[in-house]
């Protein structure tokens, strides 16, 4: 569980970006590459401690592997009660 506020913000950004990429038509392999690049950039810049990046990686991977996060929801039909 993430507790550092900066890491939580990073997690929210990356998961939002993953959903955005998914809605644009990118699939799992490309999302995985995007996440790997995101984490590599964080490690390279030393913005966050390494152990926090590791926690972020675990949570982001859990998010990525949960297929319910990428389901396309069908709009519900309105029922006309006339």
Largest beta sheet, briefly? none
The number of helical segments is 3
Q: How far apart lie the N and C ends? A: 50 Å
Number of strands: 0
General shape: elongated
Helical fraction equals 55-70%
List the uncertain runs.
none
Radius of gyration: 16 Å
Task: Name the helix and strand elements from N-terminus to C-terminus, one letter apiece.
Answer: HHH
Mean pLDDT: 91
Secondary structure category: mainly alpha
Q: Report the β-strand fraction as a percent range.
A: under 5%
Could you characterize the architecture of this molecule?
With 82 residues, the protein is mainly alpha-helical. The protein has a domain at 21-65. The protein has helices at residues 5-23, 28-45, 50-65. The longest helix has 19 residues, at 5-23. The termini are far apart. The mean pLDDT is 91.
Summarize the model shown.
This protein has 82 residues and is mostly helical. The protein has 3 helices and no strands.
Quick tags:
mainly alpha, single chain, elongated, about 80 residues
